Amino acid sequence: EVQLVESGGGLVQPGGSLRLSCAASGFTVSNYYMNWVRQAPGTGLEWVSIFYSDGRTFYADSVRGRFTFSRDTSKNTLYLQMHYMTVEDTAVYFCARASSDLDAFDIWGQGTMVTVSS
Amino acid sequence: DIRMTQSPSTLSASVGDRVIITCRASQSISSYLGWYQQKPGKAPKLLIYKASNLEGGVPSRFSGSGSGTEFTLTISSLQPDDFATYYCQQYHSFWTFGQGTKVEIK
């Protein structure tokens, strides 16, 4: 079964750091364009970052310089390292798969909640 | 950045109704548009890709149309399972979502 499972969410203080994981099964992440999308409570969806199959990464302006998207092909797992977090980073974080950078996101994980609060 | 604007924000409808949701892009995105359905506490689910292509397993009552800057999602006969929030997404230049349209029971 093709599946994405996120983990690592939790409560973090403003200015703190957190690392999210996204474990893939049923397909090889290095063959796809993998994304992080977040959803703040009661609001819509915001694209956060993409990891191209060729290793390039891109970030939304709101997280560039603070978040880092990485990939461990041996574990078929993706990571989102988040630093200098603010209350505006509070959201459910989803990982999602696309076949290319000109494709919709066809597989989504269930999401992991991140709360930034003192 | 490309902005996506959906209308309406909320839509009240009854089972069996024909429902149309509109999505407008701030500049041309060709046909690089997807539609997603999201239920509370769940991940979004892809319904339509490339503006008019039905994702596998999605009921045929869902259809999409449009190109350039104007797009629509149509549900031909609303079913109880369809009450949810719907999002459009452009992937022509980076990735942007509309603000969502909540379809609620009338």
Give the % helix of chain B.
under 10%
Into which percent range does the helicity of residues of chain A fall? under 10%
How many strands appear in the DSSP assignment of chain B? 11
Shape of chain A: globular
Largest interface: A-B, 21 and 23 residues
Rg of chain A, please?
13 Å
Q: Main β-sheet of chain A, in a few words?
A: 7 strands, mixed
Question: What's the short version?
Answer:
The complex is a heterodimer of chains A (118) and B (106). Chain A is an all-beta fold.
Structural description of this entry:
The complex is a heterodimer of chains A (118) and B (106). Chain A has 118 residues and is mainly β. Helix content of chain A is 0%, strand content 51%. In chain A, the strands form two sheets. In chain A, strands 2, 4, 5, 6, 9, 10 and 11 form a seven-stranded mixed sheet that branches. A four-stranded antiparallel sheet of chain A has the order 1-3-8-7, with no helix packed on it. The mean pLDDT of chain A is 97. Chain B is mostly beta strands. Classes of the chains: A mainly beta (118), B mainly beta (106).
Q: Secondary-structure blueprint of this entry?
A:
The complex is a heterodimer of chains A (118) and B (106).
Chain A: E1 3-7, E2 10-12, E3 18-25, E4 33-39, E5 45-51, E6 57-59, E7 67-72, E8 77-82, E9 91-98, E10 107-108, E11 112-116
Parallel strand pairs in A: 2-11
Antiparallel strand pairs in A: 1-3, 3-8, 4-5, 4-9, 5-6, 7-8, 9-10, 9-11
Chain B: E1 4-7, E2 10-13, E3 19-25, E4 33-38, E5 45-49, E6 53-54, E7 62-67, E8 70-75, E9 85-90, E10 96-97, E11 101-105
Parallel strand pairs in B: 2-11
Antiparallel strand pairs in B: 1-3, 3-8, 4-5, 4-9, 5-6, 7-8, 9-10, 9-11
Task: Based on the model shown, name its key terms.
heterodimer, A: 118 residues, mainly beta, 7-stranded mixed β-sheet, 4-stranded antiparallel β-sheet, 11 strands, 51% strand, globular, B: 106 residues, 0% helix, 50% strand
